[in-house]
Amino acid sequence: MKIAIVCYPTFGGSGVVATELGIALANRGHEVHFITYRQPVRLELLSNKIYFHEVNVPEYPLFQYQPYELALSSKLVDTIKLHGIELLHVHYAIPHAYAGYMAKKMLEEEGIIIPMITTLHGTDITLVGKHPFYKPAVTFSINNSDVVTSVSENLKQSTLELFNIKKDIEVIPNFIDKRKCNPTFTDCQRSLMATDEERIITHISNFRKVKRIPDVIQIFNNIQKQIPAKLIMVGEGPEKEGAERLCEELGISNKVMFLGNSNEIDRILCFSDLFLLPSQTESFGLAALEAMINKVPVISSNAGGIPEVNLHGVTGYLSDIGNVEEMAENALKILKDDVVLEEFKINAQKAALEFDILKVLPLYEAVYEKAYLAM
Ligand code: GMT
């Protein structure tokens, strides 16, 4: 099929999922067109099966807010016509589903009928979408998508609770590609980060409030009082400065490394012993899954869809949001004993394999086929 994918091009989970999905679809022979305002961060190679079309929004002084939705829907119409695209898959409801619906309607005027699949990712529902200023438009765009998918059962239930949804929502979880996790990888530069005695603990996110960054620091602070350890913080965002200050106040700055955004997540996870994800809410927790496939157990909150990924007592432990004491105690249970750590590492990777792209991709393809045939 010729498929257009609309997503955010950033390091955020929805952009990563959309990009990895597009690459996998291209590997299966589909022609994939990414339509967004910048080349997606994980999209390194363009080919005769992968195209990128940039959405430009010309600045005009009259507008306090530049009309991105308008530019996106126009770009969709042009690209779909030019390349004979057969299906539109939008990731993140706001404003992509809304712009996609407008494009569909414009194309219909010209006799072109194209199905639109909307994938809900989390914050488009639980944080931003439910705001009264957006809610009617989000409800409308979901109800007017041809197929709606959500990345976890929990997100599906939240969507049904928060919005008046008349469509079925199919759950298609986030995924990883086990083939990208190379078992013969020998370039794991652990010694650059820590001594042999130290455990390495990692957190990766966009450092937004929802990630509860101060909790990450407090959990680590409690751990390092008991065992030698280092914390690696990967990502950029509004909470980073405060986190650096908190480390100084606690006197642990020499044990915490802030690496900024990275495209080499696997290289960092290969030497990590534990991953921390104490989020306020998380529709799925792709970062946890990426840790698990790299044999890294997870200490997390039990928020949202995280329990569908991190299995309590098996791949890590879950605690109530904000219970940093318990999270640190659980972390120590895993980290203090080499045998226990190894057991959790193996369990984490085994559980992550359930989300391998080879299992998840056919679910998307089935949805595409159903939507296409229904037109
Ligand atoms: O976690 C973020 O803040 C980024 C966000 C996004 O919209 O890109 O991630 C969401 O989508 C990911 C991919 O489906 C999920 O794995 C994340 O759990 C979800 N984040 C939240 O629900 C907070």
From TrEMBL:
<dbReference type="Pfam" id="PF00534">
    <property type="entry name" value="Glycos_transf_1"/>
</dbReference>
<protein>
    <submittedName>
        <fullName>N-acetyl-alpha-D-glucosaminyl L-malate synthase BshA</fullName>
    </submittedName>
</protein>
<dbReference type="GO" id="GO:0071793">
    <property type="term" value="P:bacillithiol biosynthetic process"/>
</dbReference>
<dbReference type="GO" id="GO:0016757">
    <property type="term" value="F:glycosyltransferase activity"/>
</dbReference>
<feature type="domain" description="Glycosyl transferase family 1">
    <location>
        <begin position="195"/>
        <end position="350"/>
    </location>
</feature>
<dbReference type="Pfam" id="PF13439">
    <property type="entry name" value="Glyco_transf_4"/>
</dbReference>
<feature type="domain" description="Glycosyltransferase subfamily 4-like N-terminal">
    <location>
        <begin position="11"/>
        <end position="178"/>
    </location>
</feature>
<dbReference type="InterPro" id="IPR023881">
    <property type="entry name" value="Thiol_BshA"/>
</dbReference>
<dbReference type="InterPro" id="IPR001296">
    <property type="entry name" value="Glyco_trans_1"/>
</dbReference>
<dbReference type="InterPro" id="IPR028098">
    <property type="entry name" value="Glyco_trans_4-like_N"/>
</dbReference>
